Amino acid sequence: MTVTQPRVLLTNPIDPQVALELRRHAEVRTASALDFDALRHQARDADYLVVRAQLPEDIFEATPRLRAAVRHGAGLDMIPVAAASRHGVAVANVPGVNAVTVAEYAVGQMLNLARMLPRIDTLVRTESWAAARQRADDATDLGGKTLAIVGMGQIGQSLARICALGFGMRVLGVRRSPAADTEITRFVTLEQALPEADYLVIACPLTPQTRGLIGSTELARLKPGARLVNVARGPVVEEAALVEALRSGRLAGAALDVFETQPLAEASPLRGLPNVLLSPHLAGITRESMRRMSEGVLSQLLAMFSGQLPVHLCNPEAGAAILSRWASLTEQP
């Protein structure tokens, strides 16, 4: 009897070596376009989705064979999880494997903001050596400064270690539930952290509770001249309030990897602010982190190919519905 290989649709490419290994076990295709109509059409006969792009809310109505959607990363905002659960589709992710990568990005941007390196590079190239060198008079050290981290998951913990042990920064951690202080982190409320922070790094997940968490009131409580780095999700920070704080000079600068709407609109006022560093949601992406994330996805898929629920099942409350759907799909000719 011929055994049909499972069909896997990748919204975007994964690590090439891991993709080769996956092709030993499955029929693998990569989406040719990422607009919602194209994704619905290309996923219609897929058994599994590997997700690196936003899925439409009704994707599971268009995918009768689908068993699971696996996030190539940790954040689940690209997958309509509630809809997946209603349809008995498993949702899995790969948590923590790019935490150090994101933390390193945040540190790099803090250094860029403190030393004004992107601006100085531009001045060397377009104006003069002397003009660029003069800007160094206003640069600052990270050592001795206070870092407030909103979200003390694996990214926040990695960042705390790097900044406390590597730069001698004082670290304040903000999290949903109380926690005992550690050797490198003192846990406080957001209200307590804001007026003390020289750097505010947003590293929390996007939830109904964190949407709009940092608005005009919170930005006004920050120490004048503070800098903000967002490696979480754009809607955690109210963009209009952020623009106003940057324009007024209350915030000395910001480094943003995520935005309320992505891609960032051409007309966004953020593009015209000289004290803002912009990047296109890549804080967690390096050659090494891509390999780790892809390997995590592969291990989850291989488990499911053999009929097991994934280790990092994100909708366990739908476990019975998932197994029922899998059983009915297995019985189909």
Could you please describe the fold and organization of this structure?
The protein is an alpha/beta fold and 333 residues long. The protein is built from twelve helices and twelve strands. It folds into two domains: 7-97 and 287-331, Rossmann fold, CATH 3.40.50; 99-278, NAD(P)-binding Rossmann-like Domain (Rossmann fold, 3-Layer(aba) Sandwich). 37% of the residues lie in helices and 15% in strands. Strand 1 (7-10), helix 1 (16-23) and strand 2 form a beta-alpha-beta unit. The two termini are 13 Å apart.
Based on the model shown, name its key terms.
333 residues, alpha/beta, Rossmann fold, 2 domains, seven-stranded parallel sheet, five-stranded parallel sheet, 12 strands, 37% helix
Judged by helices, strands and strand pairing, the structural class is alpha/beta
SSE pattern, N- to C-terminal: EHEHEEHEHHHEHEEHEHEHEEHH
Overall CATH architecture of the largest domain: 3-Layer(aba) Sandwich
Helical element count?
Answer: 12
Number of spatially distinct domains: 2
Q: For the largest sheet, list the strands in their spatial order.
A: 8-7-6-9-10-11-12
**Distance N terminus to C terminus?**
13 Å
The amount of beta strand, in percent, is 15-25%
Mean pLDDT: 96
Could you tell me the CATH topology label of the largest domain. Rossmann fold
Morphology? elongated
As residue ranges, the low-confidence spans are none
Tell me the CATH superfamily of the largest domain: NAD(P)-binding Rossmann-like Domain
Helix content: 25-40%
Counted beta strands: 12
Radius of gyration: 22 Å
CATH class of the largest domain: Alpha Beta
What is the makeup of the main sheet?
7 strands, parallel
